[in-house]
């Protein structure tokens, strides 16, 4: 019988969420490096170079890969011969580990979990509670997978109840373009097939925890070995999704996904549940075992294992923009695909800020910030630590601000917006009109 101590699980969880906040899985990074070498689109190649450069900087500085440090997801397989030396429940131990990780003074992580989701939506301040999935299995240890899933990719999750005669491939290829680029490709698609609706979703999520190994499957197919139907689906979907040309960060290109993962489960004769969940470019998960000998040991990856790709701004083709003297006429002169190098002060804000602005304008109140001829960046940065001026700060999905776009352009003096992914028809119409 193995005894797992309370503190060992708590510390292992805390270490794991810190670890994945700044270390990409090497299989993902190496696959992305290969995609960089293959890429023919200058914009997509540039985007991949930025992701790889950011990844190395995060690994070197032990600061988050992405400012959306995710909701904590934990998969547990508990051996039937395990006994707990603990006062807390397993959920409470995991929550305590998440709490320690997200409040670490050396690498503060952004707490994104809101309590009372249909009501006050109050931040829990420590990213708890975690979402925990349990399985009781034969054995003498505890297998743990920790993942941090950002909202941009989670929000693009899809689920459908197909007829048994329907094509899974057709549904995926029809659905992926509707996800836009807010899930931050290149990433991984997780697909769950069968069971019941909730089982299919869980299968899709769990499949994302597996390593990037589509290249091994290609080698198996090339050798003439017989493939299972799931393996055939993985290869077919990989090729057809990438043929859509969505590309890195939605900029067009050869690589939208680095792998397609599929898990299936027996289902009702009348049913074909299919779920699809993407993993974004901030692919964050780690796998370890607890055997009673102490906390998990997570190996430090070697920086030399990162692809030798470094991004630099191409100042020969970029247009320099002074945000402090920007005019409507200058904004109107910009063309799609143009590269801008920004200098000066920008405003920042996202959902909550825009809601407050709308409330104040409706009440006839004066805004505390002047937006006249200014730019707003849709961002929610991680808190700074040590001598940082600002913590890691990347763009959030611009689509969530679509309903506020006309108000901002017509009532505040704002003249430009910075964010990621596509804009919807409501925002596009407001931009055209202004």
* Overall tally of structural domains: 3
Order of helices and strands: EHHHEEHEEEEHEHEHHHEEEEHEEHEHEH
Biggest sheet layout: 4 strands, mixed
β-strand number = 17
Mean pLDDT: 96
Q: How many distinct helices?
A: 13
Low-confidence stretches: none
What general outline do the C-alpha atoms trace? globular
The CA-CA distance between the termini, in Å, is 70 Å
- Please give the order of strands in the largest beta sheet: 6-2-7-12
Strand content: 15-25%
Task: Determine the fraction of residues in helical runs and give it as a percent range.
Answer: 25-40%
Rg measurement, Å: 23 Å
Structural class: alpha/beta
Written description of the protein model:
The protein has 13 helices and 17 strands. 36% of the residues are buried. The strands form six sheets. The protein has a four-stranded mixed beta sheet with strand order 6-2-7-12. A four-stranded mixed beta sheet has the order 8-11-9-10. Strands 15-16-17 form a three-stranded parallel beta sheet, with no helix packed on it. Helix 2 (26-38) packs antiparallel against helix 3. The radius of gyration is 23 Å and the shape is globular. The protein is α/β, with parallel strands linked by helices and 434 residues long. The model has no long low-confidence stretch (mean pLDDT 96). The protein has helices at residues 6-22, 26-38, 42-61, 90-102, 151-154, 168-175, 197-207, 214-222, 229-242, 328-332, 351-362, 405-411, 425-433, and strands at 2-5, 71-79, 82-85, 114-115, 122-123, 131-137, 142-149, 158-162, 187-194, 257-265, 272-279, 285-290, 319-322, 340-343, 347-348, 375-377, 416-418. The protein folds into three domains: 1-150 and 284-309, no CATH class; 151-281, no CATH class; 319-433, fumarase.
């Amino acid at each position: 019988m193995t005894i797992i101590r309370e503190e060992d699980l708590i510390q292992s969880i805390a270490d794991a969420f810190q670890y994945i906040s700044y270390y990409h899985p090497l299989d993902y990074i190496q696959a992305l490096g290969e995609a960089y070498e293959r890429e023919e689109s200058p914009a997509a190649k540039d985007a991949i170079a930025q992701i790889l450069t950011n990844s190395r900087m995060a690994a070197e500085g032990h600061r988050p890969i992405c400012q959306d440090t995710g909701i904590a997801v934990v998969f547990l397989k508990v051996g039937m011969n395990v006994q707990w030396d603990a006062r807390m429940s397993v959920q409470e131990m995991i929550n305590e580990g998440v709490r320690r990780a997200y409040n670490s003074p050396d690498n503060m992580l952004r707490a994104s979990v809101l309590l009372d989701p249909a009501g006050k939506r109050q931040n829990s301040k420590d990213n708890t509670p975690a979402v925990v999935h349990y399985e009781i299995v034969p054995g003498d240890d505890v297998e743990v997978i920790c993942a941090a899933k950002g909202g941009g990719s989670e929000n693009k999750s899809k689920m459908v109840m197909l007829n048994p005669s329907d094509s899974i491939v057709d549904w995926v290829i029809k659905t992926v373009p509707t996800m836009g680029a807010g899930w931050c490709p290149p990433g991984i698609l997780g697909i769950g097939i069968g069971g019941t609706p909730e089982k299919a979703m869980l299968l899709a999520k769990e499949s994302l925890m597996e390593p990037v190994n589509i290249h091994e499957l290609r080698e198996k197919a090339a050798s003439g070995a017989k493939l299972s139907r799931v393996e055939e689906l993985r290869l077919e979907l990989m090729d057809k999704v990438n043929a859509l040309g969505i590309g890195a960060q939605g900029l067009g290109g050869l690589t939208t996904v680095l792998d397609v993962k599929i898990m299936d489960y027996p289902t009702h004769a009348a049913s074909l549940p299919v779920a699809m969940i993407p993993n974004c470019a901030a692919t964050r998960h780690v796998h370890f075992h607890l055997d009673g000998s102490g906390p998990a040991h997570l190996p430090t990856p070697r920086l030399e294992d990162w692809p030798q790709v470094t991004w630099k701004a191409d100042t020969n083709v970029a247009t320099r923009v002074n945000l402090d003297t920007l005019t409507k006429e200058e904004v109107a002169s910009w063309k799609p695909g143009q590269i801008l190098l920004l200098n000066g002060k920008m405003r920042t804000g996202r959902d909550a800020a825009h809601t407050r602005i709308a409330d104040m304008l409706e009440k006839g109140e004066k805004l505390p910030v002047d937006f006249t001829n200014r730019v707003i960046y849709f961002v929610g940065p991680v808190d700074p630590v040590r001598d940082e001026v600002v913590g890691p700060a990347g763009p959030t999905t611009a689509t969530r601000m679509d309903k506020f776009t006309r108000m901002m352009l017509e009532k505040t003096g704002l003249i430009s917006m910075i964010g990621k992914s596509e804009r919807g028809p409501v925002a596009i119409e407001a931009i055209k009109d202004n």
